[in-house]
Design goal:
Layout: E1 6-10, H1 34-48, E2 61-65, E3 70-76, E4 79-82, E5 85-89, H2 92-101, H3 111-114, H4 116-119, E6 126-136, E7 146-149, E8 157-162, H5 163-166, E9 176-183, H6 186-189, H7 193-207, E10 216-229, E11 249-251, H8 264-283, H9 299-316
Parallel strand pairs: 1-5, 5-11
Antiparallel strand pairs: 2-3, 3-4, 6-9, 6-10, 7-8, 8-9
Length: about 325
């Protein structure tokens, strides 16, 4: 095969991440808008290398080649795109939609109706995320750049970041810019922008009293429904690996299973590199990306992991152990 065509189907949801090294953490934040600082220059560089982007196309199904057992094309409504290999770098809910569509009379991907590997995805659930960026009219001292919070209501967790200390463009500002992210936020998604701003401001006041009396002079809200997998006891066995039962179909995302040890956005990035390496291996063309291993666990964490593995081994010997949560 001299000329290989690869299709990568990607969901892009820009949620700002941060590059200040936290105490006891390797969590980094981007020193500006992720879309502006990272994604746009990266996409432009790929276009200069001949990569073609097809925007605003939603994958609805896949087709197979009966003779080879490989995926032959991806269908986006009325458009069909053929390729030699495919990477689905999409969120769980997007792939679930493809599986569901295949179960309502679609003849293009009947394999999804009977393939347990994909049907199992319907056992998994997702949660809504809301990202709120607030500009306050005065300078407020925030002790920590990144703050993870819980206990303010019964259903959602949230985090907030001091962008004034992180973004190069904001460091000299006499105001305060904060970004808050709310997870499992289905009760907030349908609220008006003003109500969401009020909720976010109220949460901030409970954490730092200096926000009391501060006026929001500008805001930006991004609603991302069904964008993050809801990891629950028993869900692990239903998730996909990076390779599938189709030799030319690969998966990337923060919700799949791999052995790297990363999570969240870092895991999405790492699984993307792994998918690229699988494509290189499949075509036997190109160079493998180098993936940096995570640091080893601290002794007490490794001890607990060993105990957990041993407990699982013992549990597997118990009759009817397959009915236990995994």
């Amino acid at each position: 095969m001299n000329l290989c065509h690869l299709i990568v189907s990607v969901d892009l949801v820009f949620i700002n991440e941060c590059p200040i090294l936290q105490e006891n953490s390797d969590f980094l934040l981007c020193r500006g808008e992720v879309e502006e600082k990272i994604f746009s220059p990266w996409l432009q560089s790929l276009e200069l290398k001949g990569l073609k982007f097809v925007e605003n196309k939603v994958p609805t199904s896949l087709t197979t080649d009966v003779d080879s057992g490989c995926i032959s094309s991806i269908v986006c409504g009325d458009d069909v795109y053929e390729a030699d290999a495919f990477v689905l770098a999409m969120g769980l809910s997007s792939l679930q939609s493809i599986v569901k569509n295949s179960n309502v009379g679609s003849q293009e991907c009947p394999f999804l109706r009977s393939d347990r590997e994909f049907r199992n995805l319907l056992h998994l659930s997702t949660v809504d995320v809301i990202s709120v960026k607030l500009w306050f009219d005065k300078k407020i001292i925030i002790p920590k750049v990144a703050n993870v919070c819980s206990g303010f209501d019964d259903s959602s967790g949230w985090a907030f970041f001091d962008l004034t200390s992180v973004y190069d463009d904001y460091c000299e500002e006499s105001i305060t810019i904060v970004e808050a992210e709310f997870y499992n936020a289905s009760h907030l998604v349908l609220l008006s922008d003003d109500d969401i701003v009020y909720e976010a401001s109220s949460h901030l006041i409970k954490c730092i009293q200096d926000f009391e009396g501060a006026i929001v002079i500008r805001y930006s809200i991004r609603r991302s429904p069904n964008s993050v997998i809801n990891f629950l006891p028993g869900s692990y066995k239903y998730t996909l690996r990076g390779s599938t039962s189709f030799p030319n179909l690969f998966i990337a995302g923060d919700w799949i299973v791999n052995r790297h040890g990363s999570f969240s956005k870092e895991k999405a990035y790492v699984t993307g590199l792994e998918a690229g390496n699988r494509v290189v291996d499949y075509f036997d063309i190109g160079d493998f990306a180098k993936i940096i291993a995570v640091e080893g666990d601290e002794p007490h964490i490794e001890t607990l992991r060993s105990l957990n593995r041993r407990a699982n081994e013992l549990k597997s010997q118990i009759p009817f152990s397959e009915f236990f949560l995994q």
